[in-house]
Amino acid sequence: MILEEILKNLKNQGKNKAYTINNQSYSYEELYRFVCNIYQFILLNNKEKKPIMVYGNKEIYMKATFLACSFAGITYVPVDKSIPKERVDLIINQVNPYCIFGDYESKYCKNITKKQIYELMENETFNEINKIYLNANDIYYIIFTSGSTGTPKGVKVTYKNVDSCIKWLKEITKVDNDIILNQANFSFDLSVADLYLSIVSGSEQFILEDSMVFNFLNIFKQLKQSDATIAIMTPSFADLLLLDKTFGKEILPNLKTIVFCGEILLKATIQKLYLRFPNIKIINCYGPTECTFAVTSIEITNEILKQENIPIGKPKKDVEILILDKNKKQLSNNQIGEILIIGESVADGYLGEVQEKTFIEYNGKKAYLTGDLGYWSNGNLYYESRKDKQIKYKGYRIELLDIEKNLYDLNYFEKVKVIEKKSEKNKVIKLIAFVKLKTNINKTELEIKKELALKIPEYMRPSIKILEKFPINSNGKADIEKLRGLTDGRENY
Ligand code: AMP
């Protein structure tokens, strides 16, 4: 399985670059030393084999700890430092980790600071890794995603899931001694692709710092330095890069493949990329965190580009995809229904009790009901839309109910409704929270924004509009149409 391949590379790739961040590269040899030291520490101290939370922002110790945990048979939980403290504490309470690696103080568990980790990692005399403790059905990592109850949902992904995903990605990208560009922070499962595809193939993972803040100057400087050959990103990120006319062959002369995943890939994005990078290979992947990065893929050829809609392709060979109607009966070609994913990629489920019953058994096999609507046509799968209130904004997955719940938790509002505003191309371009204050509460929009910032990450924060009178429909619910009218100027505040 992949951990054997990874261990082989760590031992044999010597001075080849494994990881580059902020002008600093680490060789395979160095990374191996870091991993060995952390591995021995974990085996010695975490006797109960409790999960370990890894907190930070793409630093080398995060990758080293992920690998050390995997070899030691310990589940890791990546948490990016952009996530506000209140939300991180909700995660800690669910996970009950052995400790937190990274600078995060919590009254709930002990913390190994960055300084302590670096001291530990650098130890020149260390014992090598001679045993891999992780078994195929063990939980490899838990990634938290937006939950409709206002509390993040932890997806438990097994070693078998990751192994199957990375082997498939190796095949479709034909990776070999490449430089793989990372966009996503490690809280998002998009990063699983570059974290592991790089190390399993003896390639370099080149980290883009500040990709969430998107400082053009800094991003373009890093892109140029990277000389990346493969990039893994969301379409939204590519759209941002394309805003700058210089994004093209001059900046990334050796870029040969871009792997997209996470949201609708628009024709316009592909066409612009082909103009800037004439010989590039573009791969569209589809899948939720609950099915380990992605489960379908397609290379976008000129033939495909001629079609009206861009397909999300065909499933990997150990996965089956069915389209179901409301009664979970299979639909035929060209009929739109819910996408059901069956097979090796389906994760172990959510951590703890979660309301949604989306992990199911279908014909005796483990399956995941995605909430995505789609259809089969001419041998390819197409994504149509969502059937619920989950959206993608700037490439990030958000439950609108998660934002609403966190607003209600402030205890200031009689009524809250969060609305997404879309472009003509059906892309979410703005989030707006309409709120009606309780009679005795006096708060400004700015004050509400500031308090919400303590609860949810930047990418989930809507603009706030206080309404004196909240539009209600005949069922007594928020009148979504009227609220939409307010967002596009058809109605007045
Ligand atoms: P995440 O768990 O953050 O990866 O988000 C998963 C969701 O993103 C899916 O359920 C889809 O709604 C959406 N998604 C992922 N890939 C694609 C794609 N290639 N095209 C359209 N939607 C996608």
Please give the count of helices: 14
Q: Helicity level, as a percent range?
A: 25-40%
Quaternary structure of the protein: single chain
- General shape: globular
SS-based class: alpha/beta
Largest sheet: 9 strands, mixed
Spans of at least 5 consecutive residues whose pLDDT stays below 50 are: none
Task: Give the strand tally.
Answer: 26
Distance between the termini: 59 Å
What is the overall pLDDT average? Answer: 95
Bound molecules: adenosine monophosphate
- In spatial order, strands of the major sheet run 2-1-10-9-11-12-13-14-15
Q: What is the rounded Rg?
A: 23 Å
Report the β-strand fraction as a percent range. 25-35%
Q: Can you walk through the features of this model?
A:
This protein is an alpha/beta fold and 493 residues long. Helix content is 30%, strand content 28%. The protein is built from 14 helices and 26 strands. The strands form six sheets. A nine-stranded mixed sheet has the order 2-1-10-9-11-12-13-14-15. Strands 16, 17, 19, 20 and 21 form a five-stranded antiparallel sheet that branches. Helix 10 links the parallel strand 12 and strand 13. Helix 1 crosses helix 2 (28-45), helix 2 (28-45) crosses helix 3 and helix 6 crosses helix 7. It starts with a helix and ends in a 6-residue tail after the last helix. The model has no long low-confidence stretch (mean pLDDT 95). Bound molecules: adenosine monophosphate (AMP).
